[in-house]
């Protein structure tokens, strides 16, 4: 149903266009005397005053000075007590003689002149004679025996300033010290923040010494961690050796009671280059004399043939030295010698438990074994 309804016609907005007229004397009235300044334009408080004083005739300097002083901004704001004092004053209030009445604007101007004149000598104040001179020059208020308005205003201003213990204008107040705990006093000085994109780095001797000290500390930490790793490794090795010694002692006791019990092959950790010999020992494979004979190979080194002609006693010495432990006291046949029958009259050697730590660590440091995975 909504599609069947006709669309509403949009009405055009009537925007009035101003009528332009040519002014014949425009170029004469508005002279093209604008010069582009070299800096940004700043609005001054006496902008209108300066323009009006420039338009005034030069032959009247007193009028120009009056206009200049009158164009300055009055920064003192009259409070309720100020208006009450002015209204209830017997000489300058509402009930006084109209010739000597003091308007609120003139009263505020007088207080403002006194504050700005005492700005450079804060917390001190100017004298009464100096105040009379300022009033006579700025607002043309002359002191006379019958007209002592300047004296009364000066005394009121000094009493109010002493009661407040500071100037009437906020911009002349002293800076709040850091050790002042009064919460009503603000704008305490603080360090000016400096925004830097990155820290300026200098390649000096102090930085070099710090880096050298840091490198020395890291080297010490790495050395300590390496010592801890070696200590834990040797602890594990000691536990394995003690376990193997205990198992071998149990087996020796059982074999003494049961001679038919097969000989136990202890698990001795060999180095990687001697893994082949360890496999032969663990499988108890005793090779024959034909297997012992060396095969013919290409002559690469003459020392290889000289080693093959050595006796078996020297061959035993040339084998890799194992760690000196109580486990190795058990005679284990190698593939270069035949198993020999042990005489029955010989006593059975039982290894000491636990082994001496001095001998154990001396053997480990001399030729540390490698664990097989």
TrEMBL record:
Query: Biased composition, Basic residues: where in the chain?
Result: 294-303
Q: Which organism is it from?
A: Aphanomyces invadans
One Gene Ontology BP term is: regulation of transcription by RNA polymerase II
GO CC terms for this protein?
NuA4 histone acetyltransferase complex
Q: Where is this region: Disordered?
A: 273-311
InterPro entries named among the record's database cross-references: Enhancer_polycomb
Name of protein: Enhancer of polycomb-like protein
């Amino acid at each position: 149903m909504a599609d069947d309804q006709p669309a509403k016609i949009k009405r055009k907005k009537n925007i009035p266009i101003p009528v332009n007229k040519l002014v014949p004397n425009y170029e004469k009235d508005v002279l093209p005397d604008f010069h582009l300044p070299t800096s940004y334009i700043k609005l001054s408080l006496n902008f209108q005053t300066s323009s009006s004083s420039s338009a005034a005739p030069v032959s009247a300097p007193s009028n120009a000075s009056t206009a200049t002083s009158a164009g300055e901004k009055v920064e003192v704001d009259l409070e309720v007590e100020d208006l009450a004092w002015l209204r209830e004053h017997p000489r300058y209030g509402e009930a006084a003689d109209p010739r000597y009445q003091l308007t609120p604007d003139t009263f505020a101007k007088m207080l403002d002149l006194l504050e700005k004149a005492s700005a450079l000598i804060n917390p001190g104040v100017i004298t009464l004679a100096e105040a009379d001179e300022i009033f006579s020059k700025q607002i043309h208020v002359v002191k006379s025996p019958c007209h002592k308005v300047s004296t009364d205003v000066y005394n009121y201003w000094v009493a109010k300033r002493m009661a407040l213990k500071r100037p009437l204008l906020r911009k002349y107040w002293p800076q709040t010290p850091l050790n002042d705990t009064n919460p009503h006093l603000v704008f305490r000085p603080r360090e000016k923040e400096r925004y830097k994109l990155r820290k300026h780095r200098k390649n000096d001797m102090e930085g070099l010494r710090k880096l050298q000290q840091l490198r020395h500390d890291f080297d010490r930490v790495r050395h300590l961690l390496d010592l801890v790793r070696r200590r834990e490794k040797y602890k594990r090795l000691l536990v394995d050796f003690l376990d193997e010694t205990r198992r071998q002692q149990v087996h020796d006791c059982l074999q003494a009671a049961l001679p038919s019990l097969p000989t136990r092959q202890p698990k001795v950790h060999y180095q990687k280059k001697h893994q082949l010999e360890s496999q032969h020992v663990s499988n108890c494979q005793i090779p024959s004399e034909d297997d012992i004979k060396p095969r013919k190979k290409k002559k690469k080194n003459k020392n290889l043939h000289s080693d093959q002609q050595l006796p078996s006693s020297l061959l035993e010495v040339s084998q890799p030295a194992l760690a000196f432990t109580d486990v190795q006291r058990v005679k284990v046949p190698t593939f270069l010698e035949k198993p020999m029958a042990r005489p029955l009259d010989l006593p059975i050697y039982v290894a000491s438990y636990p082994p001496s730590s001095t001998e154990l660590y001396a053997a480990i440091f001399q030729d540390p074994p490698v664990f097989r995975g």
